[in-house]
Amino acid sequence: MRRPDFEELEVYQLSEKLANEIWRIAKGWDNFTKDTLGKQIVRSADSICANIAEGRGRYNDQDNRRFVKIARGSLYETISWLRLAYARQLLTNEHVSRFKPILDELLPKLNAYLKAIGNRE
Fold first, then answer.
1. Do the domain assignments include residue 93?
2. Residues 31-86: pLDDT tens digits?
3. What is the pLDDT of residue 5?
4. Which one, out of 46, 55, 91, 102, has a CA that is 20 to 30 A from the CA of 73?
5. CA–CA gap between residue 90 and residue 82 (Å, rounded)
6. 43: buried, middle or exposed (CB in 10 Å: 19+, 13-18, 0-12)?
7. At 116, phi and psi to the nearest 5?
8. Is the pLDDT score of 119 beyond 90?
């Protein structure tokens, strides 16, 4: 059986990198913070790459686009959680400098990927 091709997508690789960076940060928080904000932010970040992968495995472009739109919604949710975490002083400027470049690249690439689905030859 061939390896799934979603792993080759740059948009998937970026989303996985973001999810892993958020995981590394959140696992160091205290129990209350992990149980409230931490679980939410990890789930939303993980959902980005999971939905890209699931959409890629669907049999038609319409289903793939639907899952990529869900991934985009999860990205927005993740950004919202990151803003709250920063406002609550759970994130340092060093944390932000590690994930902000990923975010700056991920949203335009996710939108471009969504546009490209169905336009492949």
1. yes
2. 999 999 999 999 999 999 999 999 999 878 999 999 999 999 999 999 999 999 99
3. 86
4. 91
5. 9
6. middle
7. -75, -20
8. no
In this structure, how many other beta carbons lie within 10 angstroms of the beta carbon of residue 55? 22
Q: How many CA atoms lie within 13 A of 104 on its CB side?
A: 6
- Supply the range of the domain harboring residue 29: 7-116
Global pTM reads: 0.92
Closest by CA position to 69, among listed 12, 113, 20, 14: 113
Tell me how many domains the chain contains: 1
**pLDDT(4) > 80:** no
Any domain includes 77: yes
In a domain, 106, yes or no: yes
Range list of H helices, the chain: 10-26, 31-33, 39-56, 61-87, 93-116
